[in-house]
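Record passed on underneath.
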Amino acid sequence: MQIAPMVDIGFLLLIFFMVTARPMKPEADVGLNLPGTVAQEESVNIPDEQRIAIQPNGQVAVNDLAIGTPDDARLPALVTLLTRFKEACNANKSQALVTVAPDDAVPHQRIIDVMNACAAADIHGVTLSTTADDESAL
């Protein structure tokens, strides 16, 4: 039995299938876009500003949510929150506004700690409020 013609047909079939088969696209060549912040063309008014209340014991609360501990002078959680707020305002092309409302018995150093956290987050629109009705800009 002659095996040479069978080997020739096998090679021809192998070449035929290699030429007609589509190569698979490697995973690294697949384009992948991760979600991120997108700047908008038009300004969107953010109706609420961040209201930071300082209680007499030194506890800081942003919009009635307690942040950090009363004895923490650096307030890293507040800086992180305000930085995210600033990034959201920049993406919406609006001004980041913060109102600091300390209690009358709060030491001045605690107010300065909160103002330093606002400065670390690069927020310039800070308003100091002594009561709910009386607000004066800094």
Notes: Residues 132-138 have pLDDT under 50 and may be disordered. The beta strands are 50-54, 60-62, 65-67, 97-102, 125-129, 135-137. The CA atoms of residues 13 and 19 lie 10 Å apart.
